[in-house]
Amino acid sequence: MRKYFGFDEYGISYRTEFIGGMTTFLSMCYILVANPMILGEAGMDKGAVFTATALSAIIGTLVMGVLANYPLALAPSLGLNSFFTYSVVIGMGVAWETALAGVLVSGLVFMAITAFKIREKIIDAIPEELKYAIAGGIGFFIAFIGLKNAGIIVSHKATYVSLGNLQEPSTLLALFGFIITVVFIVKGWQGGIFYGMVVTTIVGMVAGIIDKPVAIIGGIPSLEPTFGVAFSHIPDVFNYDMLLVIFTFLFVSFFDASGTLIAVANQAGIMKNNKIPRVSQALMADASASVVGATFGTSTVTALIESSAGIAVGARTGFSSIVVAAFFFLALFFSPLLSVITTPVTAPALIIVGSMMASQINKIKWQQFDVALPAFITIIMMPLTFSVATGIALGFIMYPIIKLAMRKYQEIHPIMYGLMFIFMLYFYYIN
Q1: Distance from first CA to last CA of the chain, Å, rounded?
Q2: pLDDT exceeding 70 applies to what percent of the chain?
Q3: Is this model's pTM higher than 0.85 or not?
Q4: Is 332 helix (H, G, I), strand (E, B) or coil?
Q5: What would the DSSP string read from start to end of 225-269?
Q6: Nearest 5 degrees, angle CA 6-CA 304-CA 397?
Q7: What is the rounded distance in angstroms from the CA atom of residue 26 to the CA atom of residue 28?
Q8: How would residue 431 be classed by pLDDT, with cut points 50, 70 and 90?
Q9: What pairing do the DSSP bridges indicate for beta strands 153-156 and 74-76?
Q10: What's the rounded Cα separation, in Å, for the pair 391 and 398?
Q11: How confident is the model at residue 135 (pLDDT cuts 50, 70, 90)?
């Protein structure tokens, strides 16, 4: 086992990988509660969606860990499930069965372009500075999510964002969690982020901020209402509106997942010479997960950036992904316990991990305007648009334009031209 996952190469132990996997699970298990709530508003059976969410996370994460040996966990995307419900089903009036068929078709297309190594070639064609920008931008983005979830940053009509009410009990709990986690880390405690979550949860329950679980063990809801429904509705997706929806599922999933893979590879020190080892296996695991998820009955499944929380406490191999999958399996039986993992508990981890990931921007050649500006656009637009894919798209449009203006034609990979036009068309049609 140690040899297969390369423990000696990374200088890690089973304990480190276990804590890393547990930390990742605790950072992302909110999806087991959030996904059924959001897809339930589309008319889907919440119990079936809960089971579909857990099973798709188990299978996708296991394949990623065993096949690609990456410390990446997969689950339904929180952004794409919102698009599924509020834009497609409610906004466009599409039946959830048809929307789910759209997810299935986009997943099959995703697998095809991955099998033909189109996706791998695109990732290899991305300039090194933009890869650092993607990693750093995602750091700022998840830190912003953490600040928002903690209530430290709130919306404001005049200034868009503002400082929240720091006397709010949940915000105070998040601030306590942030401080105690920082103390654990600077004291050199391995797994400090995980221990910070545990202490914050206990303090939250003692203070009455987090409700104690009403039970420990719960039954597993049936998959029958959603399983296989997407296949019978595939003929319904071949119209202009649904093809645009499929493209959106494909586009956002493609660049969210690719951005996450690049960011995680950078953070873990896996990327070498601007190349990601075993990238084909990682991309296929990610692509196939959406097909599995749509079959069970959930929106697009992809690699989640919360995996970086586990990497921050030492996870480096696919064994930590197996640990994550095991916890998702247990969650099927112990679902009532998930109620104690609230946003004030996970927010401090996101803020701290975001700061760690943001350090990648020091590798960007900021003195070179032709790479600095596209990198800056990529970084800043991720949190400002609340979308990894949008930040990548805008940066990738700017990169060839500046290089062309400076007549540095030889520095532009032909694929970057293609991406520029695809992104331009995307913004034209989606807006």
Answers
A1: 50
A2: 97
A3: no
A4: coil
A5: TTTTHHHHTGGGG-SHHHHHHHHHHHHHHHHHHHHHHHHHHHHTT
A6: 110
A7: 6
A8: low
A9: unpaired
A10: 11
A11: confident
